[in-house]
């Protein structure tokens, strides 16, 4: 367990954490304000990556491609809201889960029809290629640092919007008591549409940022969606702060245990063979165990939004 | 009359003869299938539909009667399948041993995860069952001694008390049908019993049940364990049907599929779970023959079911029969 590897894996964990935060932020607000479970949030992330791949290839510029992809992701989020989600607000969670599950099946397949099943590659933008030295002898890709930076920037922006603006105040109020906000004369449906659209755009943004480091393929959002759910459950549904803390915990735990679980088990006295068998299993289960533990001791998460 | 019947609370069961009429038609139809279409393909397809019927029945017990939205139910299917396949890999091919073991494994997993999950309510319950399902999935992928990601092949079907009953397609079909019928009758008895009424009572009004001196947690946990054991039994049969188990048994998409079956058929009716399972599998099969991109058609269908099919197919049948 070298310190070089530890630094790199910690940065990788942070990178996964901020991507998860971008996805979880929309998810947790949509759930907090409207009590709506949106399983189809992960496909928004996938769609963002595909849109980025398409627009970057068309325009030849990452920045223009990114902007076009974000606008399209926002538009698509609003379209989904109008066509499907709107009909499900007053329904049971069961029906919401089922409907958005159907959306996942459809969109994963639609992406395959439009762009093919083979993974797409997106080039890293020219000015952010290469690696820089971050400690003595440790090289790290600039783009991955850019992802972390952009994620932290968005987190800060989101915090300012939610904490300091009128819309943010309404969102917070909606998350703690939607009926009361509605009774005070706020058009909660319109508020929700805004939250939903921007949540979809944030997930799309995560997809755009991840596209150059991951391969863009159908179903890429599914695993992240489940991780994002773990994040919002750990953090407390409806809470941006909870989503941020939860995302970093999940990102770091998952990444670090994946690379170090075998070594840790060997330090704990297991034989090399046993450690190699058990290690990966523990690593992939760790965040679910963490979530179960959090729910067991704090059934509404670390930072519950509802008083 | 029809209006009064449909607006009545879901907890009041329809008259006995009506529910029996639908069940009778289902089981009679399933029993004559091998005589009309003895082809291997049909037997295996309908056999698979019946296996999922058993799984859907087990889900309906907790989902329809207990309002516990389990989004990790496929884990039990996989546990049952793996129990049978792993025992078989160690030379134990006797169903009289491996099937009860499968059910015990399912029940044990349900007891542990249920005890934790049922501490939470609503969306948290959905998420935590999903998380436990994923845990089971990842455990299966890391079982490198038993195939890991690639899955585990079985060399033959299980023996039944030393006989090769399951190796003949037709007799296997009737065994699955027999199990389906047995599970149906068992669950029918359970939901009609005092236990089942407490379960439904806790779903309708938890506070009142507590005031009456019942502890809903214990009843829910018992239902969850029964459901897990039955779903594992379905998994044991599924492993025998396909002679192959893999982590894909436990994927969360399969859990979603199972919810779709129960809701499409009709929640909390038992008949609906069977009809839903058969319907969903036949539609999937039909769409898959139509196009390789069948999920692009199946997905919107699921969305429509969620938005419009309140009460599911069973209710449609009821309405169609003019009752």
Automatic annotation (TrEMBL), chain A:
GO terms for biological process: amino acid transport. It is a multi-pass membrane protein. It is found in: Cell membrane. Keywords: Amino-acid transport, Cell membrane, Membrane, Transmembrane, Transmembrane helix, Transport. The chain crosses the membrane at residues 6-32, 64-85, 97-118, 138-162, 191-214, 226-257, 278-297. InterPro entries: ABC_transp_permease, BCAA_transport_permease. One of its GO terms (cellular component) is plasma membrane. Pfam families: BPD_transp_2. GO terms for molecular function: transmembrane transporter activity. The keyword Membrane applies. Belongs to the binding-protein-dependent transport system permease family. LivHM subfamily. This is Branched-chain amino acid ABC transporter permease.
From TrEMBL, chain B:
Keywords: Cell membrane, Membrane, Transmembrane, Transmembrane helix. Pfam families: BPD_transp_2. It is found in: Cell membrane. The keyword Zinc-finger does not apply. GO terms for cellular component: plasma membrane. Its main location: membrane. GO terms for molecular function: branched-chain amino acid transmembrane transporter activity. This is Branched-chain amino acid ABC transporter permease. The lineage of its organism: Bacteria, Pseudomonadati, Pseudomonadota, Alphaproteobacteria, Hyphomicrobiales.
């Amino acid at each position: 367990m070298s310190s070089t590897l530890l630094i790199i894996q910690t940065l990788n964990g942070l990178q996964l954490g901020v991507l998860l935060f971008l996805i979880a932020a929309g998810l947790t607000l949509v759930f907090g304000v409207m009590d709506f479970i949106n399983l189809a949030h992960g496909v928004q992330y996938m769609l963002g990556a595909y849109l980025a791949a398409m627009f970057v290839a068309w325009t030849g510029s990452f920045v223009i491609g990114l902007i076009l992809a974000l606008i399209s992701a926002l538009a698509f989020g609003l379209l989904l809201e109008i066509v499907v989600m709107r009909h499900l607000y007053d329904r049971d969670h069961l029906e919401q889960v089922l409907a958005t599950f159907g959306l996942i099946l459809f969109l994963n397949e639609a992406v395959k029809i439009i762009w093919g099943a083979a993974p797409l590659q997106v080039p890293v933008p020219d000015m952010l290629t290469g690696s820089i030295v971050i400690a003595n002898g440790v090289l790290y890709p600039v783009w991955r640092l850019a992802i972390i930076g952009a994620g932290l920037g968005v987190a800060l922006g989101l915090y300012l919007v939610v904490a300091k603006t009128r819309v943010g105040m309404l969102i917070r109020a909606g998350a703690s008591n939607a009926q009361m906000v509605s009774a005070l004369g706020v058009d909660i449906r319109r508020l929700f549409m805004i939250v939903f659209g921007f949540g979809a755009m944030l997930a799309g943004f995560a997809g755009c940022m991840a596209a150059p480091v991951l391969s863009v393929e159908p179903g890429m959002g599914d695993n992240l969606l489940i991780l994002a759910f773990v994040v919002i459950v750990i953090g407390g549904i409806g809470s941006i702060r909870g989503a941020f803390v939860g995302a970093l915990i999940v990102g770091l735990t998952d990444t670090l245990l994946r690379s170090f679980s075998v070594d840790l088990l060997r330090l704990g006295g297991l034989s090399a063979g046993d450690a190699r068998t058990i290690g990966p299993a523990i690593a992939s289960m760790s965040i679910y165990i963490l979530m179960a533990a959090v729910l067991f001791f704090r059934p509404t998460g670390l930072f519950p939004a509802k008083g | 009359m029809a209006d009064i019947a449909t607006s009545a609370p879901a907890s009041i069961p329809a008259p006995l003869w009506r529910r029996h009429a639908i069940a009778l038609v289902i089981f009679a139809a399933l029993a004559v299938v091998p005589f009309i279409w003895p082809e291997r393909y049909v037997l295996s397809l309908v056999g698979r539909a019946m296996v999922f019927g058993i799984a859907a029945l087990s889900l309906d017990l907790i989902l329809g009667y207990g309002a516990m939205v389990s989004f990790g139910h496929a884990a039990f299917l996989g546990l049952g399948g793996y129990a049978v396949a792993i025992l078989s890999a160690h030379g134990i091919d006797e169903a009289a041993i491996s099937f009860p073991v499968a059910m015990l494994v399912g029940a044990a997993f349900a007891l542990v995860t249920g005890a934790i999950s049922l501490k939470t309510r609503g969306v948290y319950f959905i998420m935590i069952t999903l998380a436990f399902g994923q845990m089971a999935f990842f455990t299966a992928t890391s079982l490198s001694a038993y195939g890991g990601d690639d899955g585990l092949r079985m060399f033959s079907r299980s023996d039944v008390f030393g006989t090769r009953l399951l190796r003949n397609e037709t007799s296997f079909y009737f065994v699955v049908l027999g199990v389906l019928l047995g599970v149906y009758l068992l669950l029918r008895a359970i939901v009609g019993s005092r236990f089942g009424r407490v379960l439904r009572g806790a779903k309708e009004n938890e506070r009142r049940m507590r005031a009456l001196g019942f502890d809903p947690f214990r009843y829910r946990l018992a239902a969850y364990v029964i459901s897990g054991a039955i779903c594992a039994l379905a998994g044991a049969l599924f492993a025998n049907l396909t002679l192959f188990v893999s982590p894909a048994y436990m994927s969360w998409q399969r859990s979603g599929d199972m919810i779709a079956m129960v809701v499409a058929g009709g929640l909390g009716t038992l008949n609906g779970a069977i009809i839903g399972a058969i319907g969903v599998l036949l539609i999937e099969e039909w769409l898959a023959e139509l196009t390789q991109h069948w999920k692009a058609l199946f997905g919107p269908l699921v969305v429509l079911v969620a938005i419009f099919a309140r009460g599911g197919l069973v209710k449609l049948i009821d309405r169609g029969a003019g009752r």
